Amino acid sequence: xxxxxxxxxxxxxxxxxxxxxxxxxxxxxxxxxxxxxxxxxxxxxxxxxxxxxxxxxxxxxxxxxxxxxxxxxxxxxxxxxxxxxxxxxxxxxxxxxxxxxxxxxxxxxxxxxxxxxxx
Length: 119
What we know:
By secondary structure, the chain is mainly beta. Helices cover 0% and strands 53% of the residues. Strands 2, 4, 5, 6, 9, 10 and 11 form a seven-stranded mixed β-sheet that branches. A four-stranded antiparallel β-sheet has the order 1-3-8-7, with no helix packed on it. 32% of the residues are buried.
């Protein structure tokens, strides 16, 4: 089972940028598709973006398309989420997740990193 640790969260003003990182260990990183999710206070966890094991296929939630970029470095066992033009409503805990590349369920999760966007 892969273990995931996020970093890079913090506070930023609306319109600003942050880059989240997620370091994986304990598994074969290249066998996993990776994803980012977020959970705002009082709301359910929602999908943000995902990337295939090779990095060749990326998927984004509608609200972040064109502003967020997911990428991965398999040599470093790390996945990134570049977030640009951040909005106050995107304040949330951001989670990294992994699933077998041929699978459906996200079965490994990080502890989350807080992102706060002020207006």
